UniProtKB/TrEMBL annotation:
Transmembrane segments: none annotated. It comes from the Bacteria. Pfam families: Hydrolase_4. The keyword Calcium does not apply. Residues 48-191 form the Serine aminopeptidase S33 domain. This is Alpha/beta hydrolase. Keywords: Hydrolase. It comes from Mycolicibacterium arabiense.
């Protein structure tokens, strides 16, 4: 038995383990909440670890990404947030929340579990899309409370930093209307699942390269509700006023956005979900030590791109890790000058 093995159970992924984190009653009255921490292997024997957060209509399945971090000496952990993937229970609206701050408890408890399981490893937080926004807001709150001394870096993969679409969607009157609707119709659907689109470029059943549970990550996405969208817009407003996560951060994104279309061939080489110009615009709001790396021809999840841009994304990740989070014998990784914002491409 490995360290803390009594608390871990075999995961749906071979060679992975999971631990359920009970969270108590849902403030939005959809039963009791749980989150699920997933671990690659036994998790021990490393002084560094990664805690990964998924995006909307997503959960952890990407073992190649975990293997890449493990090859660099990181213990790898991923958190399926409440109502998402492994953590969604019967009767719960997928991914539904009315407050992104409502994820704080499970993030703190997951971080504590990672540090306990590894014997105090330094942790790099990783977030994709909506998970990138959630992680950024959380680390800013934790920094202001001096509550996350073990976190030493942040990696963002196409973070959801603004609402894509026509400018009218981001105008003040629209935001006010959204707030009013979120109060009285929080579960009403504002955007239905789309046929085809980005998901068809990923899953093997549709000609993609990756295999995952289509119940947990449907090809057309989950419906978007007024309540969830309002929570995200409040998060955007906080980000746009400026945050400081307090640690070096890497922002990976595609070099272009492309329209989401039923034909997967047209969305193989670009971000079909977010506007990459918005990611670039708001990158400076994350904090100091920011590195922005546009990846030519990358998809929305840069690590689910075609082989060539995916390899380029891993190279950028390796370069950043070498600079800011080198192995302990080569330095602490915290002697770089402050207020650094670089962009490579």
């Amino acid at each position: 038995m490995t360290r803390s093995a009594a608390a871990w159970e075999p995961d749906v992924l071979p060679g992975y383990w999971q631990q359920t984190i009970p969270l108590g009653p849902d403030p939005d009255r959809e039963g009791d909440l749980v989150a699920t921490l997933v671990r690659r292997g036994d998790g021990g024997g490393s002084t560094r670890a990664v805690l990964a957060l998924h995006g909307y209509t997503d959960y952890f399945f990407h073992t190649e990404l975990a293997d890449r971090f493990a090859a660099r000496g990181f213990a790898f952990y991923a958190l399926d947030l409440h109502k998402c993937g492994r953590s969604r229970r019967s009767g719960q609206t997928p991914h539904f929340t009315t407050d992104l701050g409502g994820y704080d408890e499970e993030l703190v408890r997951a971080l504590d579990l990672v540090e306990s399981d590894t014997g105090g490893a330094q942790v790099c937080v990783y977030g994709h899309s909506a998970g990138g926004l959630i992680a950024t807001l959380w680390l800013d709150r934790m920094r202001r409370r001096s509550a996350a001394p073990g976190v030493v870096g942040l990696i963002l993969n196409s973070p959801f930093f603004d609402l894509h679409g026509p400018p009218v969607l981001r105008a003040a009157p629209t935001s006010a209307a959204l707030l009013a609707l979120a109060r009285v119709r929080k579960r009403q659907v504002v955007r239905k699942p789309t046929p085809g689109g980005y998901g068809t470029s990923l899953h093997r059943d549709y000609g993609g390269e990756f295999d995952y549970d289509l119940e947990w990550k449907p090809v057309g996405g989950f419906p978007v509700t007024f309540g969830w969208l309002n929570a995200v817009r409040r998060g955007h407003a906080r980000l746009h006023r400026g945050l400081d996560v307090g640690v070096p951060n890497l922002i990976l994104r595609s070099d272009r956005s492309v329209p989401e279309a039923p034909d997967p061939e047209s969305i193989q080489r670009g971000d079909a979900v977010l506007d990459v110009a918005q990611i670039a615009r708001w990158a400076g709001c994350v904090g100091n030590h920011t590195t922005v790396a546009p990846i030519v021809d990358a998809k929305h999840d840069v690590f689910l791109s075609l082989p060539e841009p995916r390899a380029a994304a891993y190279r950028e990740l390796d370069l950043w890790l070498d600079r800011f989070l080198p192995v302990p014998e080569t330095g602490s990784g915290h002697d770089s000058p402050t207020n650094t914002r670089t962009e490579r491409g």
